[in-house]
TrEMBL record:
Signal peptide: none
Gene3D superfamilies in UniProt: 3.30.70.260
UniProt lineage: Eukaryota, Fungi, Fungi incertae sedis, Mucoromycota, Mucoromycotina
Comp. bias intervals (Basic and acidic residues): 237-251
PROSITE patterns: ACT
SUPFAM superfamilies (alphabetical): ACT-like
Protein name as catalogued: Small regulatory subunit of acetolactate synthase
Keyword Amino-acid biosynthesis part of the UniProt annotation: yes
Segments for region (Disordered): 237-264
Domain ACT: 80-154
MF annotations from Gene Ontology: acetolactate synthase activity; acetolactate synthase regulator activity
Keywords on record: Amino-acid biosynthesis, Branched-chain amino acid biosynthesis
GO biological process, one term: L-valine biosynthetic process
Length: 264
């Protein structure tokens, strides 16, 4: 008796919408039964959209100025990036193009093949802020021919720069004859006369004057052309393999022994 009363109470408390939907679903067994069921489900009613007052010009400009981030006061630091790229044409131009688009001035760039076939190592040195460097590093990694970009800015490094110098075994009396500017020194007086004559004449064009001026400056830039870029290699940790490397190492072993240098 008690069980039949409880069952009757449960049936009477059911929602009429659900009962109606179940009735329609039992009447139709087609693929549109779900549509009929959804039609009879009570839809949720949202509150009306609040009316936002139209801001004035002064309020809009104040809001823009308030939300504009202030310029970064972080100083620019020296960064060294090591890129592992595919050895194919056009990779260097794409990498340098991304850095140039972000306003970085590349101080040194060295590319060389590795012992792995079709893999090259690219060492780039430039100055910039940490946030900008991280964005540039991620953008470089998105390039298809770039395998990985390693940031060696806060890592213990071994940095070397190559300089090619021609050494003569002759005496100092032959020094002037062997200088690359010896021929230019003989023609200095003649070229100065040409420049002075061009100042008094309006016939000579600007290209001729620049060409003659460049011949004087060529002796000053001859030595700088012999410098190579910076090559960097990270140091291997000695004591703790999991200790973070936060600064460059300056060990006593890096000092040059004076006894090993040539005389003079």
């Amino acid at each position: 008796m008690f069980r039949s009363i409880a069952t009757r109470v449960v049936h009477n408390t059911r929602s009429p919408v659900i009962n109606n939907a179940r009735f329609l679903a039992s009447q139709s067994s087609s693929a549109t039964s779900a549509i009929s069921f959804k039609k009879h489900i009570r839809q949720r009613r949202f509150a009306p959209v609040p009316v936002v007052p139209q801001p004035t010009v002064e309020d809009a400009v104040t809001n823009i100025l308030y939300n504009t981030p202030a310029p970064s006061l972080q100083p620019e630091t020296r960064h060294v990036l090591n890129c592992l790229v595919q050895n194919e044409p056009g990779v260097l131009s794409r990498v340098s193009g991304i850095l140039a688009a972000r306003g970085f001035n590349i101080e040194s760039l060295v590319v060389a093949n590795t012992e792995v076939e079709d893999l090259s190592r690219m060492t780039i040195v430039f100055n910039g802020r940490n946030v900008q460097i991280e964005q540039a590093r991620r953008q470089l990694e998105d390039l298809v021919p770039v395998w990985a970009v390693l940031d060696y800015s806060k890592t213990k490094l071994v940095e070397r720069e190559l300089l090619l110098i021609k050494v003569s075994i002759l005496g100092p009396e032959h020094l002037h004859e062997q200088l690359p500017t010896a021929k230019l020194d003989d023609d200095v007086e003649y070229e100065d006369e040409i420049l002075n004559r061009y100042k008094n004449q309006s016939v000579a064009g600007s290209s001729d004057t620049l060409r003659e001026t460049f011949s004087h400056l060529r002796a000053l830039t001859e030595l700088t052309r012999l410098f190579d870029g910076i090559m960097a290699m990270p140091r291997s940790p000695v004591h703790d393999h999991y200790e973070p490397q936060t600064e460059h190492s300056y060990e006593d072993s890096d000092a040059v022994d004076a006894s090993l240098l040539p005389p003079g």
